[in-house]
Amino acid sequence: MSVFSARTGLAAALAVAALASGGCTQLRSHQGYVVDTDLVNSVQPGVDNRQSVLATLGKPTLAGQFDQGDWYYLARDSRNLAFRNPRPNAQITLQISFDQKGTVTAIRRGGLDQVASIKPYGKKTPTLGRERGFFQDLFGNIGTVGAAGAGGGAGNGSNTGGGGRDRP
């Protein structure tokens, strides 16, 4: 009986170890356009137009709003461990420019060098001026409403409240 319980204990420990190590595996993800290099290389400047690019590559990921309305095809492969933020492993940016008639004028390719790493300063936005605490923000305006020179009160004495008439 003790051999059976030792084997089940060992099997349970191995199962727990397998589940625990599965949480540390590297996750891979793909976002955006699925790039087919043969199709991308078949688009030629001066030959293709918007309709032929749409038929060959499909709908673009983004379309530019200014100038000629360039089309962008974006694809990104990233990896991360467990609950960490994903980090880009590879990126392809394909920009297709058109002229006024809709003919392809240029095809530009970009890669991982265009990924910007933005790190926030901290949990609060730095501002110029004095540091104020919670209670100063909460109670800081008490007494300032209607004060002389604040522009909101009748502290200058020019209006006596009689409907515009001056009282003696």
Descriptive notes:
It holds the Pfam family BamE. Keywords: Cell outer membrane, Membrane, Signal. Residues 32-107 form the Outer membrane protein assembly factor BamE domain. Residues 1-20 form the signal peptide. This protein is of the alpha+beta class and 168 residues long. The protein has a domain at 30-113: Beta-lactamase Inhibitory Protein, Chain:B, domain 1 (2-Layer Sandwich), CATH 3.30.1450. Helices cover 24% and strands 23% of the residues. The protein has four helices and five strands. The chain is flat.
Can you give keywords for this protein?
five-stranded antiparallel sheet; Beta-lactamase Inhibitory Protein, Chain:B, domain 1; flat; signal; BamE; Outer membrane protein assembly factor BamE; 168 residues; alpha+beta
Could you write a compact summary of the structure shown?
This protein has helices spanning 2-22, 37-42, 50-57, 134-139; strands at residues 26-32, 62-63, 71-81, 87-98, 104-110. It is of the alpha+beta class and 168 residues long.
* Overall SS class: alpha+beta
Percent of residues in helices: 10-25%
Shape label: flat
β-strand amount = 15-25%
What is the mean predicted local confidence, pLDDT?
77
Radius of gyration: 33 Å
CATH architecture of the domain at 30-113: 2-Layer Sandwich
Please identify the top-level CATH class of the domain at 30-113.
Answer: Alpha Beta
The main β sheet shows up as: 5 strands, antiparallel
Order of helices and strands: HEHHEEEEH
